[in-house]
Amino acid sequence: MIAFLSGRVAARGAESAVIEVGGVGMTVRCTPATLAGLQVGETATVATSLVVREDSLTLYGFADDDERDVFERVQLASGVGPRLALAVLAVLTPDTLRRAVAAEDTGALTRVPGIGRKGAQRIVLELRDKLGPPAEEPAATEEEGAAAPVFGANAAWRPQVVAGLVNLGWSTKDAEAAASAVAADAGEETDVSVLLRSALRKLSRA
């Protein structure tokens, strides 16, 4: 098993990055939040999980070991493959997922594109004792109605949020609309993972 990669980020796309290790470029598929932390030309370390199929070898990259471990454990649920597991972590942090499963909050799980009510119920049932307890208490969230300065259409985070939504299955039109809605109350927030989850919440309510 390849537990991690450490090297220069040679390229970064909407779904993956290329990390140069010993003169070899290794492609790793990542969540939008993990990709946001990888800067081309800089050295980075990502925890990894290698998924082996008859016709492919795919390396998935994560911000830390906990995220990688949750990615692997989520796939223990029936009908959850690596792409859906990655989508889960694009929407929910590991601890948010743990709390949702512990509380049987299927509504939180159905925010993930590709997971319906029955799928969420199955995940809760099958992963209840497999994810472990949350590492920390839930952080306070901003009220959507709070006044905040508006970020323009050219905000640095916007292309990454739109790309992340499109990669999760939303249309470009819906992704752009959700990014615009998030921009209206983003305040000074620049964390792509936070903004992406905010956009997903708006889309799930639409």
TrEMBL record:
The Helix-hairpin-helix DNA-binding motif class domain extends over 72-91, 107-126
User: Which intervals of the chain are annotated as region Domain III?
Assistant: 153-206
Q: What is its main location?
A: cytoplasm
In terms of SMART domains, this protein maps to: HhH1
Pfam family of the protein (one): RuvA_N
User: Which top-rank group of organisms is this from?
Assistant: Bacteria
Signal peptide positions on this chain = none
What keywords are assigned to this protein? Cytoplasm, DNA damage, DNA recombination, DNA repair, DNA-binding
Q: Where in the cell is it found?
A: Cytoplasm
Cytoplasm found in the keyword field: yes
- Alphabetical list of InterPro entries matching this protein: DNA_helicase_Holl-junc_RuvA_I (IPR013849), Hlx-hairpin-Hlx_DNA-bd_motif (IPR003583), NA-bd_OB-fold (IPR012340), RuvA (IPR000085), RuvA_2-like (IPR010994), RuvA_C (IPR011114), RuvA_C_sf (IPR036267)
Assembly description: Homotetramer. Forms an RuvA(8)-RuvB(12)-Holliday junction (HJ) complex. HJ DNA is sandwiched between 2 RuvA tetramers; dsDNA enters through RuvA and exits via RuvB. An RuvB hexamer assembles on each DNA strand where it exits the tetramer. Each RuvB hexamer is contacted by two RuvA subunits (via domain III) on 2 adjacent RuvB subunits; this complex drives branch migration. In the full resolvosome a probable DNA-RuvA(4)-RuvB(12)-RuvC(2) complex forms which resolves the HJ.
**What HAMAP family does this protein's entry cite?**
DNA_HJ_migration_RuvA
This chain's function reads: The RuvA-RuvB-RuvC complex processes Holliday junction (HJ) DNA during genetic recombination and DNA repair, while the RuvA-RuvB complex plays an important role in the rescue of blocked DNA replication forks via replication fork reversal (RFR). RuvA specifically binds to HJ cruciform DNA, conferring on it an open structure. The RuvB hexamer acts as an ATP-dependent pump, pulling dsDNA into and through the RuvAB complex. HJ branch migration allows RuvC to scan DNA until it finds its consensus sequence, where it cleaves and resolves the cruciform DNA.
Protein family (similarity comment): Belongs to the RuvA family.
Q: What is known of its domains?
A: Has three domains with a flexible linker between the domains II and III and assumes an 'L' shape. Domain III is highly mobile and contacts RuvB.
| Name of the protein this chain belongs to | Holliday junction branch migration complex subunit RuvA
Look up and give the organism this protein is from: Salinactinospora qingdaonensis
Protein's gene: ruvA
